[in-house]
Amino acid sequence: MKRGGVGGRALRDAKVRPARRPRPAPRGFTLLELLLATAILAMISTAMVGTLRTLTGGFAANENDAESARSTDVVLGHIDRYGRTATAILFPAANDSSPDSLVFIAGIDQDGDGRVNEDPPGDASGDGRPGLKNVDDDGDGLVDEDAIGRQPSDPGYGGYVPNVGITLRTNDDDEDGVEDEDPIDTVVFRYRPGGVIEESVDGVTQTIGTGFTGFMASHAVSNTGVHTVSARLLLGQAGNSDKTFTRVVEPVNDGRLNGVLTDQ
User: How many CB atoms lie within 10 A of CB 119?
Assistant: First the structure.
């Protein structure tokens, strides 16, 4: 019969198994490792900041370029619109240029009768009659008619009528019964300090563009008498030379409406 039993086997196992060694405590970073890690992080952060600045600067530059393009389109569009309907170029003079101003007499049909600037303030002819004396100015078969259609030979011509008033309206230069309703329209474009372009129509002024570094308006007359206006805008670009935008306008009224376009 074998000796030892369960107790002996446990004793033998205890002798065979080695004792467990305690795990070593986690080792921290050395000072050198911390310095190296800090230096690497600093270099990565610097590179990221530079990249972000470049991207941000690029976005801002693109936005500025887009805004400048919009402003340029607005200014040149306004000059084009009024220039093409101009009946006169007041400034600059023929074959001259100006660094700050451009002035048109614009052909604006204020009363929608198909004619422009035909009824300015006052009696344009100075003859005391609607339109030109003894002329059917509006082509209606009546000559120098008053506000209710009476001609000089008719009884009561030019007199007072209830709800109408004095019917002889000598300031009615186009004989339509209304005085001074389609005056001469002066349109002025000015370049102001600070890069601002202003537009003034019949004395009402508004800013139509900003951010410009220069403006030049030129008025040329060809050998055949054709007038053209050239408007040039300069836009400053950071680190680059100015961008130039030019619009050349030939008024459609030149020799075809209200007489030949002239500088005055």
Answer: 26
CA distances from 254 to 83, 84, 226 (A): 11, 9, 7
Residue 4 pLDDT exceeds 60: no
- pLDDT of 169 strictly over 50: yes
Identity (one letter) of the amino acid at 24? Answer: P
The model's confidence at residue 32, banded by pLDDT at 50, 70 and 90, is confident
CA max distance for the chain: 165
Strand partners, 204: 201
From CA 31, how far away is CA 172, in angstroms rounded?
98
SS3 state of residue 159: coil
Please state whether 211 falls in left (phi above 0), alpha (psi between -120 and 50) or beta: left
Which strand ranges, in their side-by-side order, compose the sheet holding 227-237? Answer: 96-98, 212-221, 227-237, 240-249
* Greater pLDDT, 181 or 153: 153
Residue 62 tokens read as: 């693109």
